[in-house]
């Protein structure tokens, strides 16, 4: 489960020292993408353009004109981002529009730094599931226990599997209820959900605009920080200085998030808390009673179903048979939500946000398990009831950060040979830089 693949920053050092070329990095990534889970991890592989771009970046570096130290490093983008000349399918067969005329700003910002887009990664159809299942393009499997066949998590399933298997050095995903952090936890990598307003959503096919955010998945906190920095519009990635854990006040959240926590996750999670405390962090029990309101607030589908239905109404009318019926059913729940009910959800959200913000304020970050279970077997979700139950269970903890409109990150905490398990850190809106520094400190302490 632990990989020997270098990080994005390792690759940048190799390029700077002349010990690797962009062409070689891209060829290695393409070779990995052609085997194993690669054909299911990608909906489209940009093999020719990736090779051409790598050669161009090698030439620019040789001439001393590389746009950044990361020029030539292959990364991936989720299938819902517009790329000029590519049809944006969002993991579906229902979208048959013309190729995009412009590239999404978040992707364009990576291109401006010289990153090479290896391809478009698979995802849950229209990003509306935390499982990662896709009946149209296949379901890429978690790196753990592939003999059984385990779910990768969603909706950024292909991005997580690609990063975990060395098909590039990270990927750009989206996160509406955990879509970067769930697959990161189930695939043993890092997934970051930034404060939504920091990275433009333009050119990314939406699920629910009130909750959507654009975030990276990669093999280290530093790599996520680099991709996030550029996607948010910075021209240079600032240094990431790991926070000193000694004296940090960390609230250990208990409300809701520990329900159904199984031993395979509970053990590495408890071990991680002990290591953070041994490194000097001060851990405090934290309850957020307002979170107990969430099932009631979202009982009819919440903001996600309402906003998704408003977006999909015309497409459903034109291409209903092309939808995964399980996704179609979730979207259609939004048709029963009245305007009054939608506004009531927004009002209740503001109340929960205010209450939780006040209770979280004394802490540098809040901790909980990313998901309460290890990757379920793909066969388990063939039955409709289990599909729905496991989907809600995987989304339960991560969706809190989207509802509160704050930033969050998932770190792997399992030991070699164990099932993947994630620890989630959350911090207030616009505290992204501080959260990444704390996560880097935690990453070092957790080994």
Helix content bin = 40-55%
Total E-strand runs: 11
Report the sheet with the most strands, covering strand number, pairing sense and barrel closure. Answer: 11 strands, mixed
β content, as a range? 5-15%
CATH architecture of the domain at 8-231: Alpha-Beta Complex
The CATH first-level class of the domain at 8-231 comes to Alpha Beta
CATH superfamily membership of the domain at 8-231? Amidase signature (AS) domain
- Radius of gyration from the alpha-carbon trace, in angstroms: 20 Å
CATH-defined fold name of the domain at 8-231: Amidase signature (AS) enzymes
Poorly predicted runs: none
Give the ordered list of helices and strands.
HHHEHEHEHEHEEHEHEHHHHEHEEH
Q: Judging from the principal axes of the Cα atoms, what is the shape?
A: globular
CA-CA gap between termini: 15 Å
Q: By helix and strand content, what is the structural category? A: alpha/beta
Number of helices: 15
How are strands sequenced across the largest beta sheet?
1-3-2-4-6-5-10-11-9-7-8
Average predicted confidence as pLDDT: 97
Can you describe this structure in just a few lines?
It is built from 15 helices and eleven strands.
Entry keywords:
eleven-stranded mixed β-sheet, 447 residues, Amidase signature (AS) enzymes, single chain, alpha/beta
Plain-language structure description:
By secondary structure, the chain is an alpha/beta fold. The chain has a domain at 8-231: Amidase signature (AS) enzymes (Alpha-Beta Complex). 40% of the residues lie in helices and 12% in strands. It is built from 15 helices and eleven strands. It has helices spanning 8-16, 22-33, 38-41, 47-62, 105-112, 157-164, 181-187, 221-231, 263-278, 294-297, 302-319, 325-332, 339-360, 384-404, 432-446; strands at residues 42-45, 74-78, 116-121, 171-174, 190-193, 214-218, 249-253, 282-286, 365-369, 407-412, 422-427. An eleven-stranded mixed β-sheet has the order 1-3-2-4-6-5-10-11-9-7-8, sandwiched between helices. α5 links the parallel β2 (74-78) and β3. α2 (22-33) runs antiparallel to α4. The longest helix has 22 residues, at 339-360. 55% of the residues are buried. The model has no long low-confidence stretch (mean pLDDT 97).
């Amino acid at each position: 489960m632990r990989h020997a693949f270098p990080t994005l920053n390792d690759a940048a050092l190799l390029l700077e020292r002349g010990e690797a070329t962009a062409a070689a990095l891209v060829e290695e990534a393409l070779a990995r993408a052609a085997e194993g889970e690669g054909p299911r991890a990608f909906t489209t592989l940009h093999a020719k353009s990736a090779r051409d771009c790598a050669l161009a970046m090698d030439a620019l570096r040789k001439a001393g004109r590389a746009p950044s130290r990361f020029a030539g490093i292959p990364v991936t983008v989720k299938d819902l981002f517009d790329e000029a000349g590519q049809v944006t399918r969002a993991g579906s067969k229902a979208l048959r529009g013309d190729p995009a005329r412009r590239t999404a700003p978040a992707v364009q910002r990576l291109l401006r730094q010289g990153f090479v887009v290896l391809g478009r990664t698979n995802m849950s159809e229209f990003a509306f599931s935390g499982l990662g299942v896709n009946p149209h393009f296949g379901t890429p499997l978690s790196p753990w226990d592939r003999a059984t066949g385990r779910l990768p998590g969603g909706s950024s399933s292909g991005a997580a599997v690609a990063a975990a298997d060395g098909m590039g050095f990270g990927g750009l995903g989206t996160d509406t209820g955990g879509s970067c952090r769930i697959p990161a936890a189930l695939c043993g990598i890092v997934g970051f959900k930034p404060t939504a307003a920091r990275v433009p959503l333009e050119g990314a096919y939406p699920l629910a605009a009130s909750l959507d955010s654009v975030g990276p998945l990669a093999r280290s906190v530093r790599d996520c920080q680099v991709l996030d920095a550029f996607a948010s519009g910075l021209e240079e990635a600032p240094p990431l200085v790991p926070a000193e854990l000694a004296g940090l006040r960390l609230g250990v959240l208990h409300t809701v998030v520990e329900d159904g926590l199984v031993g395979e996750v509970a053990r590495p999670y408890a071990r991680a808390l002990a290591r953070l405390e041994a490194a000097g962090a001060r851990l405090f029990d934290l309850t957020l009673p307002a979170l107990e309101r969430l099932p009631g607030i979202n009982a009819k589908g919440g903001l996600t179903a309402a906003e998704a239905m408003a977006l999909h109404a015309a497409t459903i009318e034109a291409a209903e048979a092309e939808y995964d019926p399980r996704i179609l059913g979730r979207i259609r729940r939004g048709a029963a939500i009245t305007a009054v009910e939608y506004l009531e959800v927004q009002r209740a959200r503001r109340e929960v946000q205010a209450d939780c913000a006040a209770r979280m304020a004394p802490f540098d970050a809040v901790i909980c398990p990313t998901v309460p279970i290890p990757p379920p077997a793909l066969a388990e979700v063939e039955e409709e009831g289990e599909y729905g139950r496991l989907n809600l269970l995987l989304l339960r903890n991560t969706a809190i950060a989207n509802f509160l409109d704050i930033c969050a990150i998932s770190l792997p905490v399992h030991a070699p040979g164990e099932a993947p398990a994630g620890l989630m850190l959350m911090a207030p809106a616009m505290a992204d830089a501080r959260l990444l520094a704390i996560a880097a400190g935690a990453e070092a302490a957790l080994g």
